Amino acid sequence: MIAPKKYRIKTLPAFMLIILGVMVFSLISACKSTTPVTPSNGIITQINVVNLSPDMGGLYLWSNFLQQNGVFKPYIYGKPSGYVAVLNTNVPFELRTRDNVSYFNYNKVLVLNNRYTVFTTGLVADKSQTTIMTLDSDAAPTIGRGKVRFVNASARSINLDLTANGTIAFSNLAFAKVSKYVEMPAGIYDFKIFTTGTTDALADLSRFTVQDGKLYTIYSQGILGRTDSATFGMNIITNR
């Protein structure tokens, strides 16, 4: 039965108000979930995300349930995010997939005014995916020197060696392991990665300048034997 005209006139505005209210609420919720927190009063901690999982897809950093990188700015494979400022107490810190699945969840307060890197590696296909979280701060090197460390973050890799100008700097580093920082005289270096105990270089980084007082992390990435975008290689992050 069709309602009398006088009732239709009264109920139509109420119905429209309900629809409008739902739309406004949805808009507010969406804005809240993608607004990064701006640290204040010098209380700054920074997180760098390095997505090294070839089949993971884009990742998003969340802090205290707020998304830190935009919906259309995921952290994609092979490209470090750069350091993102967060409040060190805004736990949990998460990495979520594009399907909003929490892949990494860290529920501890971070060290104030320090830098961290979270590497994602392994493969979703064989359930070998894992994360490596590093504290990127360390004591200042001796004057005239820098500090370098090595992270074996290449999926399916075996133990690796890394040389600096032909001399072994790090040896027998297993998958997902992180070496300690090692001091090196400031200067120009050719870094090479080898399978432990072999002499054929898997990857090299030539003519890199280690600067006085700087800290660096060299990491392996990709998969041995692949020739596509997931080919084995190496990269470097300036931590300080």
Could you characterize the architecture of this molecule?
There is one protein chain. The N and C termini lie far apart (about 75 Å). Residues about 1-10 and about 15-35 have low confidence and may be disordered. This protein has a four-stranded mixed β-sheet, with no helix packed on it. Strands 3-2-5-6 form a four-stranded antiparallel β-sheet, with no helix packed on it. A four-stranded mixed β-sheet has the order 12-9-15-16, with no helix packed on it. The chain folds into two domains: about 35-135, Sandwich (Immunoglobulin-like); about 140-240, Sandwich (Immunoglobulin-like), CATH 2.60.40. It is globular. It is mainly β and about 240 residues long. The chain is built from one helix and 16 strands. Strand 10 and strand 11 (about 165-175) form a beta hairpin.
Total of DSSP H or I helical runs spanning 4+ residues: 1
Shape verdict = globular
CATH topology of the largest domain: Immunoglobulin-like
Total strands: the figure is 16
How many structural domains in the coordinates?
A: 2
At the first level of CATH, what is the class of the largest domain?
Answer: Mainly Beta
Strand order of the largest sheet: 4-1-7-8
- CATH-defined architecture of the largest domain: Sandwich
**End-to-end Cα distance:** 75 Å
Poorly predicted ranges: 1-12, 17-35
Major beta sheet summary: 4 strands, mixed
The percent of residues in helical segments reads: 10-25%
Mean pLDDT: 86
- Calculate Rg over CA atoms: 24 Å
**Proportion of beta-strand residues:** 35-45%
Keywords: Membrane, Transmembrane, Transmembrane helix
Pfam families: DUF4397
Transmembrane segments: 12-30
Domain DUF4397: 147-224
